[in-house]
Amino acid sequence: MPHTFDAEAVRTWCGLALEALGRAREGIDAINVYPVADGDTGTNLYLTVESATQAVGAAFNGHAATGTASSPSLGDAIGAMAHGALIGAHGNSGTILAQMLRGMADVLAEQQHEADGAASEVRDGGDVRHAGGAVLSRALLRAADSARNAVARPVEGTVLTVAASAAAAAARAAGAPPTGHGAPTPHGADAAPGTATGHGARAGRGAATGHGAERAAAYGAATASEDGAAPGTQGAPATQCVAVPVGAVARAAYEGACAALEATTGQLDVLARAGVVDAGGYGLVTVLGALAETLTGERTTAPTSPLRAVPGSHALGPGRPDAEPREPRRPAAPDPLSATVRSADADAPYDAAATPERTPADGGHSGQPTGCDGESITGPAYEVIYLLEADDTAVARLRGRLDALGDSLVIVGGDGLWNVHVHVDDAGAAVEAGIQAGRPYRLRITHFGAAAERRLNREAPPREPKRTDGSRGTGHGARGERAARSVVLVVPGDGLAALCAEAGATVVTARPGEPPASGELVDAIRRAHAHEVVLLPNDAELRHTAAAAAAQMRTEGVRVALVPTRSVVQGIAALAVHEQDRGFDEDVVAMTSAAGATRYAELAVAERQSWTMAGVCQAGDVLGLIDGDVVVIGADLLATARTVLDRMLAAGGEMVTLVLGAGVPNNLAERLEEHVRERHLAVDTVSYRGEQPSAPLLIGIE
């Protein structure tokens, strides 16, 4: 576990953040009541960080492809993370997180060109290889400042508050006041181009009443004292930097974020009515917790589980799992957070003060979405998101057009590539504005009313498609007509892909070392073109990815059930009992039972010397793994496979499934079948050519 802030730490941070968001995703979705109660904040953050993680991995792979032992610089790694988040940002929360990462990347990019003796950094070939606590503190301050400056009407009690408190705590830990981009701007002072001021009053009774007041409160103790010293360092010049461990700064930021998160319930009326903390803020706390764990090597103590905050239909106070139930949770939201991100280089920054405030009374929206109690959810009906290639001048004009069309406008990015997010009633006009500004692509449009209804009725079965012959849909329907049900599964080889496709499933083929992302699973579910889908990930490492894909497709009206299969042999067993003619719930239960009754094993070849549960293995040894653990180390594939089969069948079994990998001769299966017949009575054996490149043999026992 790296304890320095370098490129490897960024990669570790991404992995830990993605894992943590995967665990918290459903709970964060459940408490998403602001700015729109559409229940997708956790999913949006997971998808955004997943894209960032892939970009960092690609940066490392690019260096490895050069054939040298080099790795990306810290600036390159965090820049890749920010770019990945930008192009994969989902929703308001994901877009704001992308902007925060860009702020961090900007600070580290500046370190590439500055010789800052106070920062803990080592230079190799002109690259900044790692940074210390002072640099991380400035990066977090810039991140919070970038996010707040990006919002035309900042609202306290949101992710902005959590980010500001984290930055302030980091500044205190680093022993330096927040200066430059991270410093608070006094209310009424001249703001930099693109800085929003004075709009806190419209946020509702839970918000602060002025942008300067909000930021001063947020950064409070982190501001310099009268003698120019940071709190706790009176007498030291404000410009003096103390060498502070980067882990201490990261942990302080996390703890500051946790404290701010607990306070969000009392800062926004909609959060207080629901008895929950801010969903976006909880997501940011999760990401900062992963950073602290990366840089300290110690697990962080998670804040109150969002799922525990809203058991059943009642809400509990933050941090009070034993609290008495309050009023039922109501997902009706106040005016959505209206946010406009501006570039400091924009020729003519849009003046938000010149735009009349929009309220639900401004002519009521058609097709207004409703909450669980039938109460109207205020705000526009559609969320529109797209990437845009355009210059700064065109984007400045686009901001004005989109701000006049709707709310929650966020445009992040720069250098010709932007991510546009807006809530509008006229989705076509928002897209047309993008076309006039440049080249929009990766367009996503979501209707809040439909999403809210599906969220409240996730377990209600969809209507069967009407058929003139009275039959039910099976397998893949024609593109113009959805099938009733389909199975989507991930497999590791072309042979398995052909086998499962022949059985009527939609297949995603996993490449060695490149597990499919949630976007690939979403595309496969769309290709299945069915009302109901059973998703089989066939890999324990894909459980969060598959869950995020399922959640995203539910917002599009597809009923998705995730069966958490851990091996492809479990997926084959589940597919074998799949029946179109029974009810969806019955089918899912049968497939889950078949998968759960299948024990799995794998034979692999060791790449290097390593310690295992079965002892020390050497490169080239054959490893026998049962349920993911190494139990046998051998020198011969056939002998090791026999030993694994005997161990598994000692506990009983009726059916053995053998899946041969690429290059493995067919006579291996024949000899193993003969072994089973001779040593284990009344056990059947079936074999397939899976052609998976990663494992010579997969075994399933039912």
Comma- or semicolon-separated keywords:
702 residues; globular; Alpha-Beta Plaits; alpha+beta; Serine Threonine Protein Phosphatase 5, Tetratricopeptide repeat; Rossmann fold; 4 domains; six-stranded mixed beta sheet; 20 strands; four-stranded antiparallel beta sheet; 21 helices
What does this structure look like?
The two termini are 39 Å apart. With 702 residues, the protein is of the alpha+beta class. Residues 115-126, 179-242, 308-376 and 458-478 have low confidence and may be disordered. β11, α17 (543-554) and β12 (559-562) form a beta-alpha-beta unit. It contains 21 helices and 20 strands. α1 (7-30) packs antiparallel against α10 (279-296). The protein folds into 4 domains: 5-120 and 130-189 and 200-309, Serine Threonine Protein Phosphatase 5, Tetratricopeptide repeat; 379-456, 2-Layer Sandwich (Alpha-Beta Plaits), CATH 3.30.70.1150; 483-596, 3-Layer(aba) Sandwich (Rossmann fold); 600-701, Hypothetical Protein Tm841, Chain: A,domain 3 (2-Layer Sandwich), CATH 3.30.1180. It is 41% helix and 15% strand. The strands form 6 sheets. A 6-stranded mixed sheet has the order 17-16-13-20-18-19, with helices on both faces. Strands 6-7-5-8 form a 4-stranded antiparallel sheet, sandwiched between helices. A 4-stranded parallel sheet has the order 10-9-11-12, with helices on both faces. The longest helix is centred in the N-terminal third of the chain and has 24 residues, at 7-30.
